[in-house]
């Protein structure tokens, strides 16, 4: 990624304002702070990097943030001891509000065997401090969902980790857009009300109810429209299998299939980041 592409991102110091449990697998944490006056989410699946403290730390440990060179800050952060430097994880901006005060919502997927971000979210309280590396301009490369001008429909698949992004995409979709949506979650209580003006058909795939996997469900589904755009995000293995299905078996142009692996079974995000780039991107060149 070039410097020009990442220039729209800045560091923001925030604090927890409140938390709300959305279901067995999701908790919403609302952040606030003076820095949010310069925050500008692009909506849809807008991503950011969240820096969290280790247990026992009052705030995430980072180099001084007043350096205008974002790369220098990140380099200095990486050089710090693992057990001291802030934990960094990638998340989606569920919603940004500017009135009456600046607020940002991030929804966290909770698992019994979850990592440090999951554990932090499960015990977060008002006043807890975090830092995010997020967007300062709405048109930024952290928004992966890019609807082609000629698209007449959308197909979406997401698991619980990508449910916040899928929900935000549905809210953004223009009125009457045809959408076929598959949302895979662990428990019945994870179903949520989805706001959209799109002509959306939503299928909840609840694992505790014995629902088929996303790959099985989508393989049997009819694509909406003549020129669909596909967005799939969640567990990396499922995402790659679905992309192969659309590109190889359905014959869709790979440029019309956006796929994002948020996590991988058996790997932490740190380990996933260490996977050789060509392993993760081979499918993009197929």
Please render the helix and strand layout as text.
Blueprint: H1 3-6, E1 9-23, E2 26-32, E3 47-52, H2 70-78, E4 87-92, E5 95-97, E6 103-109, H3 116-123, E7 129-135, E8 153-159, H4 163-172, E9 178-185, E10 199-206, H5 214-219, E11 228-235, H6 236-249, E12 257-263, H7 269-273, H8 277-281
Parallel strand pairs: 8-9, 8-11, 9-10, 11-12
Antiparallel strand pairs: 1-2, 1-7, 2-6, 3-4, 3-7, 5-6
Organism: Streptomyces nymphaeiformis
Protein name: NADPH-dependent ferric siderophore reductase
GO molecular function: oxidoreductase activity
Describe the structure using short key phrases.
NADPH-dependent ferric siderophore reductase, 21% helix, globular, Elongation Factor Tu (Ef-tu), domain 3, Riboflavin_synthase-like_b-brl, 8 helices, alpha/beta, 286 residues, SIP_rossman_dom
Principal-axis shape equals globular
**How many helices does DSSP assign?**
8
Radius of gyration: 19 Å
| Largest sheet: number of strands, sense, barrel closure | 7 strands, antiparallel
GO molecular function, one term: oxidoreductase activity
Domain FAD-binding FR-type: 9-142
Protein name: NADPH-dependent ferric siderophore reductase
Pfam family, one: FAD_binding_9
